[in-house]
């Protein structure tokens, strides 16, 4: 049996990418319910505990070493998941400000094709939406047009 690490490692500024990738990994492995369902002590079986430990392993593999201290004592997935989410929520204001700055400073670089520039733009828009700051279409259009060269 081979194990693979998560393709997106949780760092300081990519929680929304990591959460989506980790949910997909857990879903693919049949372990997503461990982060979505809180079971009472009477409902927990040995099979549930075993699968919970496996899901915890997937999460631990997908976390940068600098964040291991947040989950080192976790004995279940939910005990690991919640502190990671809460930490990212606390840093969300900083991340929202940073993403807004990156969005407003975004300029198409020499040699970069328009589709790649649009992909970079969309990534920032999705990031802001994930942090609870959606941008209406008119504002997106103004920012996008200002990121393009005048010619």
Automatic annotation (TrEMBL):
Offer one Pfam family short name for this entry.
Answer: Retrotran_gag_2
Q: What's the superkingdom here?
A: Eukaryota
Protein name (Swiss-Prot/TrEMBL): Retrotransposon Copia-like N-terminal domain-containing protein
